[in-house]
Amino acid sequence: MVGGLGGGTLTFVLIGGNRVLDQETIRSFINVAECSSFSKAAEAMHKTPAAISYRIKMLEENIGTLLFNRTTRTVSLTPAGEHLLAQCRQWITWLDAMPGELRQINDGVERQVNIVVNNLLYSSKAAAELLTYLNHCFPFTQFQVSRQVYMGVWDTLLHDDYQVAIGATGWESLENNIKILPFGELSWVFVIAPHHPLAKVSGKLTEEQLRAYPALNIEDTSRNLTKRVAWLLPGQKEIKVPTLHTKLACHLRGLGVGFLPKALCQPYLEEGTLIQREVFHHRQPSPLCLAWKSDTMGKATREIVSLFQNNSPIVSDFLLRIDKFLKDE
User: Fold this and answer.
1) 296, 150, 283: which is closest to 222 by C-alpha?
2) Is the Cβ–Cβ distance between 187 and 323 less than 8 Å?
3) CATH 3.40.190.290 is the classification of domain 188-276
4) How far, in whole angstroms, is CA 295 from its chain's centroid?
5) Under CATH, to which class is 112-185+286-328 assigned?
6) Cα dihedral angle (47, 53, 55, 59), rounded to 10 degrees?
7) What is the reported pTM?
């Protein structure tokens, strides 16, 4: 266990009830292990080899087991030493970060912020841009980003330890403690590959014609809320894929039929690698929003909300597929 918090920093670690590991001993042990040499470790720490050797010897005596195998030429870790090295690296990382982390907590900054992003809006570039900014502003906060599909976004926000949802469906909150900021609507187009058999059929495509070919869908990742099926006709074969770009790749190869976000497939429509067709029952636009838990809101969550409220360039790539913003109405 750790203990001895004095002056805001940990001063020793207890092992078996003995006070055996202070910060200097931890750093000495790590340096000897990494240098495989007492003299090189002493040089790195601006100490004498005798001082380092004595500190490690006392550590081994207090613990009651050897941590290093010693020969006239080399120093190597024993299995117990390997285990202790892994622990010490964790301890020293925590010790170095702890003062800033504690100050940040007192300032109202969360220790952990989890963000769920709708698969429709997810972008590696957008996620990296946001995380880089947040890590700079809140260096001691742990951040996690998850990508979910359809009702899986709300499910994750409601039932898991997540604070923010980017691209929650609808413009109404599902809980009183969750606030929302409407983005706008994402439009859909029905597309097929130019070499698909239906490309030769003129006029609106009927259900009978469509049912002969697989529907390409991404499965709703919800575990607690009712799953939604994007588009599937009775009796039609369904092929489920994990991501939007996998679905796009399948459409380009003529594997099946279905709807894609207009903004995503527009370049392919323009170059002719996809063809837009009309169907009798068109998929309605998807309203999307930012949602966040207001009752546990700290400074990091507040900053994320502020970025979207102020249309910051830092988060603009998340909204590239929104083709009808609410303010446009």
Assistant:
1) 150
2) yes
3) yes
4) 22
5) alpha beta
6) 150
7) 0.73
Residue spans in the chain of domains classed CATH 3.40.190.10: 112-185+286-328
CATH topology of domain 2-106: Arc Repressor Mutant, subunit A (1.10.10)
Task: Please give the span between the terminal C-alpha atoms of the chain, in angstroms, as a whole number.
Answer: 60
Judged by DSSP in three states, 177 sits in coil
The tokens describing 172, both together, are 């109404």
Task: Map tokens 């239906």 to a residue.
Answer: 198
Q: What one-character-per-residue DSSP string does 167-194 give?
A: EEESSS-SSTTEEEEEEEEE-EEEEE-T
Mean of the per-residue pLDDT values for the chain? 89
Helix (H/G/I), strand (E/B), else coil: 49: helix
> Closest Cα to residue 255, out of 214, 298, 292, 224?
214
Q: What is the pLDDT of residues 248-296, one digit of tens each?
A: 999 999 999 999 999 999 999 999 999 999 999 889 999 999 999 998 8
Distance (Å, rounded) from C-alpha 53 to C-alpha 59?
Answer: 10
Q: Given the structure tokens 């097929």, which residue do they identify?
A: 192
Tokens of 258: 């279905």
Query: Could you tell me where in the chain the CATH 1.10.10.10 domains are found?
Result: 2-106
- Residue 280: Cβ within 10 Å count: 9
The CA–CA distances, whole Å, from 118 to 100, 124, 189, 321 equal 33, 12, 19, 12
Q: What is the bridge-based pairing of β-strands 324-325 and 178-186?
A: antiparallel
